[in-house]
Amino acid sequence: MKVSDIIRVLEAVAPPIYQESYDNSGLQVGERSMEVSGVLVALDITEAILEEALQRNCNMIVAHHPLLFSGIKSLSGRNYVERIVMKAIKNDIALYAIHTNLDNMRQGVNAKIGERLGLKNLRVLTPAKDTLYKLSVFVPTHQVSTVRDALFQGGAGQVGAYSECSFTMAGAGTFKPGANTQPAIGTAGGNREYVAEEKLEVLVPKDVLLTVVAAMKKAHPYEEVAYDVVALQLANPEIGAGMVGQLEQPMPPEDFLAFLKERMHTSCIRHTALLEQPIQTVAYCGGAGSFLLPAAKAAGADIFITGDYKYHQFFDADGQLVIADIGHYESEQFTSELIVDILNKNFPNFATLLTNLSTNPIKYYY
């Protein structure tokens, strides 16, 4: 097993192209060709986590939060980041982060929270609008099936829960082969050709666009392929920030907070004034999600759950819903289990270990 094998599986679930612009997900220390003896999974990479990896014979750490967000100008051990990098290099330990790209996946961080809370009818709270393309290609009628199959195999044609979706329109194409061409139809330097063609259209996710185009060109019979790629502003229900869902039965606000505290293993919940109506529609975002409050209100949520809320931001509830801050670590702590599940599903006989440590830097005095 190599580092590249681990990365391939993780990035199939959460392609790095979907991480936020400020983020730094991916391989941060180590080489892709390294042999892996075991993987330790944690929310953060700390010195204690690195030591745990050494003790448990793991030479790769997969974490949700990146260790490196900005450039390092020296490696002198003056802070924990430099010390971790130095020790990881010295001990041949690879460090990998799968952060906002996993946050933004429909089956990612927030799906795990929804599972913990037993929510139904889950959907992305703010679907991304810059992740889909429409690919149109002009194909001789007798070759449409071959090209269509290649597009589907490359990852095109997914519309929600439906796969292999496409559209064709019949027409006629013309071209005149140049003297130095190798045309599939007609002869080099010959006359203008009139060919029965179909315009084949599919939707293509951003992360597989190059793969799909390459597959299309390989399957297409023409030397020069006529095609268009158009960026769409359609909301992508599979990618975006936050989630919203419903409880099986409405709960009194006090009962729901007690349920939330128990299910999310949090020591305390900071919240706005409780309202009279019961809680049933729940919007939430793992980590720091205050920017999603307007979307939570628009979704008709009775409560919005996240972490890292600031004092003045609580006023923005404005009596329309309850804001509940359960803590950044507390909201994302089960992400490690999600990553372990992904790796175990793909490598059932490989040592993927969940950390025994809490990396929460915040402590509570009772």
Explain what this protein looks like in three dimensions.
The protein is of the alpha/beta class. The protein has 3 domains: 3-98 and 334-354, NIF3 (NGG1p interacting factor 3)-like (Udp-n-acetylmuramoylalanyl-d-glutamate--2,6- Diaminopimelate Ligase, Chain: A, domain 1); 109-127 and 240-326, Udp-n-acetylmuramoylalanyl-d-glutamate--2,6- Diaminopimelate Ligase, Chain: A, domain 1 (3-Layer(aba) Sandwich); 130-234, Alpha-Beta Plaits, CATH 3.30.70.120. The chain has helices at 3-13, 47-55, 80-90, 100-103, 109-117, 144-154, 209-219, 253-263, 293-298, 328-332, 335-346; strands at 26-29, 39-42, 60-63, 94-97, 120-128, 132-140, 167-175, 193-205, 227-232, 236-251, 270-271, 279-288, 303-307, 322-325, 352-354. The strands form 3 sheets. It has a 6-stranded mixed β-sheet with strand order 5-10-12-13-14-11.
Question: Can you give me a brief rundown of this structure?
Answer:
With 366 residues, the chain is α/β, with parallel strands linked by helices.
- Which regions are unreliable across 5 or more consecutive residues at pLDDT < 50? none
What fraction strand?
25-35%
CATH architecture of the largest domain: 3-Layer(aba) Sandwich
Q: What portion of residues is helical?
A: 25-40%
The strand count comes to: 15
Counting DSSP H or I runs of 4 or more residues, the number of helices is 11
Top CATH class of the largest domain: Alpha Beta
Structurally, the number of domains stands at: 3
The largest sheet has its strands arranged as 5-10-12-13-14-11
Which whole number gives the mean pLDDT? Answer: 97
Gyration radius (Cα, Å) is 25 Å
The CATH superfamily name of the largest domain is: NIF3 (NGG1p interacting factor 3)-like
